[in-house]
Design a protein that fits this description.
By secondary structure, the protein is of the alpha+beta class. It has 17 helices and 21 strands.
Length: about 675
């Protein structure tokens, strides 16, 4: 892949404001001098005009001197302004205020899966790991999850069908093109004809009900829906979603060479190694971007990621076993920062319901077996094992923090119940147990719940082979629906349940389910054509409840509809939810404005917006942690007996149902340790 295009070349050597203004002032003086020379006579020209009178010549000389003095004063004033700016920055630094400079070092578990086109990628990891830095969305959200302006400066809803977005004046894409109403229209036209990697239209959710889309003027764009659809606005900020805008000239190339309107532009990407981006000086909110750039190290192993943080290679990271109170206390005592809370991400089971597969593959089309799997899972035990109780049992297809949940209702109060599970398995003809394949992602984040779930199912009689791999490999295998029975994945919905539920039903009725005649991924199955297909009819009933839940004018109006939908979802067992993750981040001591975002358990600004370093020593200087610049690390080899040392070594002695993991040394990281164990009996 070539990244050596004009836009990246033009930014490789950034010119400071001082240099630019100083050069401009000097260039002005030179231009004035040239202008005077150009007005002079030519002694060699026989037809030249007579020489000007002496008084006129003196007046011209005096004007030139005055102009030169004025321009010199302007240059001095510009120089003084730069000095004042530097003094202000120094004062801000002394007071702990924002100071520009530095490259944020971070880690990520996966290379990009679907490329850099936000409409094509269906992976949340792509969006959180890469795309959110390159592309801003039409709408954004604050720390509490409230919708706020982003590329659209404001929006209007003159009635329950009409949406007007007023785009931000002067907003540009990273190629200099205007990010205006015309660009929004071009993006929506392109999106309307673009499928994601699953052959679906997930990103189109924001325009799925539109009967008209039009440019009012350069800054105003209007869309009219066919029916009231409350989640419309949410889809313009969801990720993946409708709102991430691409520069229209780059629709066909953005999958490898992204051009958006976000705070960072990509300068380098090496699959399996790193991703590098720099601050874009033309960003509309650049006053709140204090760092010069970022580098993400692609490190699949969570323990190696943690060691990279402890050795000072990265600015912030999460402990591989989750943020326990003991780890948090130790980090703070050692001079780090530590944040903790609940993530808006949970783990859930998926069943292979593809009617085109043989019975040993699609056995979960029998609802008795889906319910038996649900009754075999002890969610509170998994929460205790995987998060030390810092997470939460999942109750429905939405996070525990969602406004859509009735506060006093537990949709999983009936589980675990192994006796009933065995009765259902026996009635379905599987009294001797069930064998098959169980898919999961191969990261610590997924594994710490997926392994205990696997163990509980195995004890209940579901003798599944545990298969894990990278997200890209597992998603490809999941979509093929050929050789697996159950998968355990993670999902999230911080703002509105509708995008998750709507896309889940679409997947079951299309890319995984399909029509019995056409097979999987051949178009949304039509229940009217298959009146005797009980599973398809049940999916259609759930689909109707999803639509009913999206109509209410307010969140409060929608809650009763969601209550009925969640109960239906649980009764049918389309995918059972297990537990909600806890979230915790550790930051280097010199990070300023390092804050926890309650709405989704992430760091405010994802480490680029609103965050700065309290000191800057420049290349090769000093002991500056959190910046990937090969400086001496702040933190050396933690005590193996301490909570932080145990986390760095991958040891979780309090979690009897989790495997131990090998820690790979990296740089000046703590000593590596290794052990071998089974998921049920660690021997570290």
């Amino acid at each position: 892949m070539s990244h050596d295009n004009y836009w990246t070349r033009a930014r490789r050597h950034r010119i400071s404001r001082r240099t630019m203004l100083g050069a401009s002032a000097k260039a002005g003086v030179g231009a004035a001098g040239l202008a005077l020379v150009g007005c002079g006579g030519d002694d060699d020209d026989d037809d030249a005009a007579p020489a000007a009178p002496a008084a006129a010549a003196a007046q011209a000389e005096e004007q030139a001197e005055e102009q030169a003095m004025e321009e010199d004063e302007q240059a001095q004033a510009a120089e003084q302004a730069m000095d004042d700016d530097e003094e202000e920055e120094q004062a801000a630094a002394a007071a702990g205020g924002p100071v520009r400079g530095g490259t944020v070092g971070l880690t990520w578990s996966e290379s990009i899966y679907g490329g850099f086109n936000p409409y094509i990628s269906l992976s949340g990891a792509d969006h959180l790991g890469y795309l959110i830095y390159l592309y801003d969305s039409v709408l954004g959200f604050d720390k509490a999850g409230r919708i706020e302006p982003e590329l659209a400066e404001s929006w209007e809803l003159p009635d329950d069908l009409t949406y007007i977005f007023n785009m931000r004046p002067g907003c540009l894409f990273q190629d200099g093109a205007a990010c205006d109403a015309n660009a929004l229209q071009a993006n929506m036209d392109y999106l309307a004809n673009t499928e994601d990697l699953a052959g679906q239209d997930r990103a189109q959710a924001g325009i799925s009900k539109a009967v008209s889309r039009e440019v009012i003027d350069d800054l105003s764009w209007r869309m009219v829906n066919s029916e009231p659809f409350a989640p419309t606005l949410v889809n313009f900020l969801a990720s993946p979603g409708t709102g991430m805008l691409i520069s229209p000239a780059h629709f066909e190339t953005t999958i490898t060479d992204p051009v958006g309107a976000g705070p960072m532009f990509q300068t380098d990407y090496n699959e399996g190694e790193n991703w590098v981006a720099e601050r874009w000086d033309g960003y509309w909110d650049n006053d709140n971007v204090w760092v010069d750039g970022m580098e993400k190290l692609i490190i699949p192993d969570a323990n190696s990621q943690w060691n990279a943080f402890l050795s000072g290679e990265v600015a912030w990271s999460g402990p591989p076993g989750g943020m326990t109170q003991a780890v948090k206390d130790q980090l703070i005592a050692d001079g780090f920062q530590a944040l903790s809370g609940t993530a808006q991400t949970w783990q859930q089971t998926w069943f292979n319901l593809n009617p085109d597969r043989p019975p040993e593959i699609n056995l979960f089309r029998d609802p008795r077996l889906r319910r038996a799997a649900h009754l075999s899972i002890d969610r509170e035990a998994i929460n205790q094992i995987a998060t030390e109780g810092l997470g939460k049992r999942s109750r429905a297809p939405v996070s525990q923090e969602s406004w859509a949940l009735l506060p006093d209702k537990d949709y999983y109060a009936d589980s675990p119940n192994l006796d009933e599970a065995h009765q259902l398995m026996d009635a379905a003809g599987y009294g001797d147990g069930i064998s098959g394949t169980y898919l999961s992602f191969a990261t610590e984040f997924h594994r710490r719940m997926a392994e205990p779930v696997h163990n509980q199912l195995r004890e209940a009689g579901f003798d599944f082979q545990f298969v894990e791999n990278s997200e890209a490999v597992i998603i490809d295998r999941l979509l093929a629906t050929q050789d697996w029975q159950m998968a355990v994945l993670t999902w999230e919905s911080p703002f509105d349940p509708d995008p998750v539920l709507r896309n889940s039903i679409a997947g079951l009725m299309n890319w995984q389910y399909g029509s019995p005649e056409g097979g999987p991924r051949t178009g949304r199955a039509d229940p009217a054509l298959h009146p005797n297909d009980e599973l398809l009819q049940a999916l259609a009933e759930t689909d109707q409840l999803v639509n009913a839940s999206a109509v209410g004018p307010s969140q409060e109006d929608r809650i009763p509809h969601y209550d009925a939908l969640f109960q239906n979802w649980t009764d049918n067992g389309w995918n059972y939810h297990i537990a909600q993750y806890n979230s915790g981040w550790a930051g280097q001591g010199n990070l300023e404005n390092f804050e926890f975002r309650d709405v989704d358990g992430w760091v405010v600004g994802e480490g680029v917006m609103y965050l700065w370093f309290s000191t800057f020593t420049g290349p090769g200087g000093g002991n500056w942690c959190g910046v990937r610049a090969r400086r001496a690390p702040l933190y050396h080899s933690p005590d193996p007996a301490s909570p932080v040392g145990a986390a760095a070594a991958g040891r979780h002695p309090e979690r009897e149902s989790l495997a131990c993991f090998v820690t790979a040394s990296r740089g000046s990281s703590p000593p590596s340790s290794s052990c071998s164990s089974s998921a049920s009996s660690p021997s570290c």
